[in-house]
Design a protein that fits this description.
Layout lengths: L5 E6 L15 E2 L2 E2 H10 L4 E8 L4 H14 L3 E4 L5 H9 L8 E6 L7 H11 L4 E7 L4 E10 L5 H7 L8 E9 L5 E3 L3 E4 H7 L11 H7 L5 E4 L10 H11 L14
Parallel strand pairs: 1-4, 1-6, 4-5, 7-12
Antiparallel strand pairs: 2-3, 6-11, 7-10, 7-11, 8-9
Helix pairs in contact: 6-7
């Protein structure tokens, strides 16, 4: 009998400031985006538990809004972090059942992971203790200055770009260097780890600034395997991202569907 059993932690405590509103509540084919993300894992035989780390400041409201639907799927809701993502994962680790051999961590705003990618990740996790998906970077990468500048009407740069139109609104950063993109990958979630390894990674004192869980495993000096991700596994950060995602999934916004199909 296969003892491989996965607990899934879904990080849902972010403020979504760049989206401008609660992106997890956005309609995605008649269901909230958050629920679509949770449903990625509910039909997987390998998944033994799903834990959602919710915004601690609005935890009661979160439970009121999503508790019934998440409870139907057996999801546990815990208070996430107030400042950084790693705080949410650390809090959720306490709710992971001991019988789960592996822990996957996934962004709540990535609701389009294919079942094929999940299968590849779960298969790889049975031979490697840390597995993450990534896609090759195709765009040119540049490091820019920390400080920004604003063009003035006399700014020659603005004149060259815009002529007489809109110069007052030109803002930007100056390029410091062009970076080599060979062997550089854009990393996605879910990331999956042997349970003991991820727990050990979270016992480290230096967790601040970690933008993903693999970074903490790397700090231990442990190897991390990257497998091929997929373009559709995008993270919704802005309203434009949501529009693209709806197109990928072939669903329409609520206002574009007949009234009887909106809910």
């Amino acid at each position: 009998m296969n003892s491989f059993r996965v607990a899934v932690i879904i990080a849902a405590a972010g403020q979504g400031t760049r989206f401008g509103s609660d992106k997890l509540a956005q309609d995605l084919g008649g269901r909230p985006l958050l629920l679509r993300t949770v449903e990625l894992f509910t039909k997987r035989d390998e998944v033994g538990a799903i834990i959602v780390a919710a915004p601690p400041e609005t935890l009661d409201d979160f439970r009121t809004r999503y508790g019934a639907q998440l409870g139907f799927h057996g999801v546990t809701i815990v208070a996430g972090g107030r400042t950084e993502r790693w705080e949410s994962v650390r809090n959720a680790l306490a709710a992971v059942p001991q019988e789960c051999t592996h822990i996957a961590v996934h962004d709540a705003a990535r609701p389009a992971v294919s079942d094929a990618l999940l299968s590849r990740l779960f298969d790889a996790a049975q031979v490697a203790d840390a597995v993450i998906p990534g896609v090759a970077v195709s765009s040119t990468l540049k490091r820019i200055s920390e400080e920004s500048f604003q063009a003035t009407p006399d700014d020659a740069v603005a004149d060259a770009i815009l002529g007489d139109a809109g110069k007052e609104g030109v803002r930007g950063h100056r390029v410091e260097a062009t970076l080599a993109r060979a062997r550089v990958m854009a990393i996605q979630t879910p990331q999956i780890f042997a349970g003991a390894l991820l727990r050990r990674a979270y016992t480290q004192e230096n967790l601040a600034g970690a933008t993903d869980d693999a970074m903490l495993v790397e700090q231990l000096g442990e190897p991390v395997l990257v497998i091929e991700g997929e373009a559709r596994n995008m993270k919704v950060t802005t309203p434009a991202d949501l529009t693209i995602l709806r197109s990928i999934l072939g669903v329409r916004a609520a206002e574009d569907r007949p009234a009887h199909k909106r809910f």
